[in-house]
Amino acid sequence: MEELFNLKGKIALITGGTHGIGMAIGITLGKSGAKICVNDISEEKLELCKKEYAENGIDVFTVKFDVTDEADVDRGISIIEKEVGEIGILVNNAGIIKRIPILEMKVSDYKQVIDVDLVAPLIVSKRVVPSMIKKREGKVINMCSMMSVYGRNSVSAYASAKGGLKLLTANMCCEWAKYNIQINGIGPGYIATAQTAPIREGGHPFNDLVMTRTPAGRWGEPEDVGNAALFLASKASNFVNGHVLYVDGGILANFGYVKGENDIPE
Ligand code: NAP
Ligand code: GCO
Hints:
Elements: E1 11-15, H1 20-31, E2 35-40, H2 43-55, E3 61-64, H3 70-83, E4 89-92, H4 107-135, E5 138-143, H5 156-176, E6 181-188, H6 197-200, H7 205-213, H8 222-233, E7 244-247
Parallel strand pairs: 1-2, 1-4, 2-3, 4-5, 5-6, 6-7
This protein binds NADP nicotinamide-adenine-dinucleotide phosphate and D-gluconic acid.
């Protein structure tokens, strides 16, 4: 059974993998034997992340590029291909969110979120997948969200992008599954990272909503997502394709609650 999840000999690229969910994925895949390459848009964060990877026994290869810039992506991937080797596992994790009501949001803000969260996975995949096609083997994991299926006030750009990414994942499957490439999404629920800190910390009321709306009664941890990524990056998922695996503590299964009925057990 261990062999099913053994990634020895595989090279994985996690975009935006210097902290949060991306780092948890990098550490989990690295501990399973993969050579980990991490991208970010910040040189400083690329430097800072090396220590935590090393503390987990992982000699991470880092490369700075902007996932929304085709030329920069080509340059960055070429460096990885030259210095490390061809990528066998691509995790399109980099993402941003802007929480702005539609009528107050500038169109440029909307387009920026779409560029990072939806167009960039296309750009990076178009650059990486041809070598997977040649090899007749590969894994692509697109970081979707429960917002791939739900909206909520103030996250229209983000939900539009993540909804589109769910169907881009399906279309990648339709075009590339015949080459023995598995392309799936992960849809995290509410995970405790820097991205959700503004709506989780300081007594923010949204925290109460998440705690009661999530049947598991807790925020997810980045490691919860890392474990799902290991499944989708491994041989164990070789017949799973075009799927979005929700890692959400049951929130998508839960229509709602009556105060008191769902109090979290002591
Ligand atoms: P995060 O802390 O904001 O990390 C996002 C990463 O993406 C950062 O390292 C960021 O780099 C990088 N990035 C942003 N723009 C980039 C660009 N143009 N080029 C390269 N890298 C770029 O987010 P997170 O919470 O770990 O989430 C990671 C992914 O999971 C995102 O796609 C997010 O939408 C998704 N997700 C998160 C949750 C959650 O509850 N946290 C739930 C569902 C889905 P810098 O920090 O240097 O800007
Ligand atoms: C928000 C949160 C969410 C999470 C995640 C939920 O403002 O509602 O940031 O969008 O990031 O996508 O799955």
